[in-house]
Design brief:
179 residues, 24% helix, YbaK/aa-tRNA-synt-asso_dom_sf, alpha+beta, aminoacyl-tRNA deacylase activity, YbaK/aa-tRNA-synth-assoc-dom, YbaK/aminoacyl-tRNA synthetase-associated domain-containing protein, YbaK protein
């Protein structure tokens, strides 16, 4: 499906698989979403949220970020990808920590997040993550008609309805995740 947000005009991911990171593309294929999700090429230097918003004249509510958070309980690591609107920050110290049932939750270091997701920094998204990772989606993200998120690589963005993220196999809708 093609979407238009600001000055972004997407094409179905199925028509430009070269613009989608390998783990993300494999998951889109497996979930039957390559024609539902759009992709648009962007300047990799403008991949960070604030730069993308300005360069492509995007409303802030159309942008969502994915952060990877981890904690331990009884020696076992618990990891979650948190999807929040770009106008908010994931409430790691309260909401995420309680959801993961850990004493302390912290952001994965950049290099580790890149290595473990198989995605480039600035392109990390919840589609195609390891199956045992939880995907926490802020309720406000799930209601957006069209979101701009990472594609697995810095040189493009995915455009999709928020409800698509809510239907991912490991997704959990969380009120107040983004603050």
């Amino acid at each position: 499906m093609a979407y238009v947000v600001g000055r972004m005009h997407s094409v179905p991911a199925s028509s430009r698989p070269d613009l989608v990171g390998e783990p993300t593309l494999a998951a889109l294929d497996r979930l039957g979403l390559t024609d539902v999700v759009g992709v648009v090429e962007v300047d990799p230097e403008l991949s960070d949220t604030a730069l993308t918003q300005e360069a492509y004249d995007l409303p802030i509510e159309s942008l969502a970020n994915c952060v990877i958070v981890a904690g331990k309980r009884e020696g076992q690591e618990r990891v979650a990808a948190c999807m929040v609107l770009a106008s908010t920050r994931a409430d790691v110290n309260t909401v995420v920590r309680k959801r993961l049932d850990v004493r302390k939750a912290t952001f994965l270091p950049r290099e580790e997040a890149v290595e473990r997701t198989g995605m480039e920094y600035g392109g990390i998204n919840p589609v195609g993550l390891p199956a045992d990772w939880r995907v926490l989606v802020d309720a406000a993200v799930a209601t957006q008609p069209v979101l701009v998120i990472g594609s697995g690589v810095r040189r493009s963005k995915l455009l999709l309805p928020g409800e698509v993220l809510a239907t991912l196999p490991s997704a959990e809708i969380v009120e107040g995740l983004g603050r």
